[in-house]
Specification:
elongated, 3 domains, single chain, Rossmann fold, 15% strand, Peripla_BP/Lac1_sug-bd_dom, transcription, DNA binding, alpha/beta, 434 Repressor (Amino-terminal Domain), 6-stranded parallel β-sheet
Amino acid sequence: MKFEAATIKDIAKALGLSTSTVSRALRDSHEISEATKKKIRDYAVEINYRPNPVALSLKEKRTLSIGVVVSEIANTFFSQVINGIESIAYKNGYNVIITQSRESLEREQMILDYLTSRSIDGLIISISSETNDFTSLKQLHEKRLPIVFFDRVVEEINTHKVITDNLQGVYQATQHLIQNKFKRIAIIASNPNLAITRERLAGYLQALADHKITVDHSLIRYCSHGGSDVEEVEIAVKDLLKLKKKPDALVLLADKITTETFSILKREKIKVPGEMGVIGFNNSKYTSLFAPALSVIRQPAFEMGEKAATLLLNLIESKRAVTDFKLESLAPEIIIRESSQNSR
């Protein structure tokens, strides 16, 4: 049996009123008496009446829904961002449609087609690690779909963006290792096409330069899928361990790269921090329970979500075309634990 939701016609028929009277009462029109409004509202609650969102969207040309695209919902960083987005969206009467690209450009494109076919009012997106063609996003932007980027942004699209101060975060992490007497500091980064990878790498290079350390490019490795491909991380780590002059510390530039690398080092029986100092991006609250406890660069994920949602709703609800866009750069938190303390 097909489910049929209660309608205005059902209320009108049950109460012996016209549909126009019921409709106006539910919109709180001054033309309808308070007694009649109460009668209609009470009955609407009794039969669990809900306004038809499709009808409302046709009338108001808005769906009160926003799309969110992340690479992986299970990733602690992204789940915290989503919580921040929802806290603002629901408070303002918007529904949130959450999707994940799984680091696939093809899947991201399918998601964009799906979301826009559902007439979302706006989009919050962190692009996939594979995304190097921004044609679809540019077309949506040109058609005036409100878009806010966070974390992994598209620099050439002029709209609001919310990021972590990636350069400063990695600079501080690398400097911490240098100050703890680590000599050969390697880095495992995400896809070099991503703006965040370039920013984080710049922080590493700046720290080396400021401490008069010559860059050894053999100590720089990339994982094109940002750590989602475990084999890719394993190859990067083992290549570093095979070097004639091995690294004695690692800076890891993505959440999944950090946890996968730590696991590989344990499996290879590499003592941390005795043989290898480790610090990396990670927002999990469980990194303090690792053995040894893991030093991390933690992004203000919930706040990033709040800011992204606030900026998007401002775009959606603005009565005029917005031409002044913000780049919100939030400071990361460097949490120093055992894994990056040189005990030698």
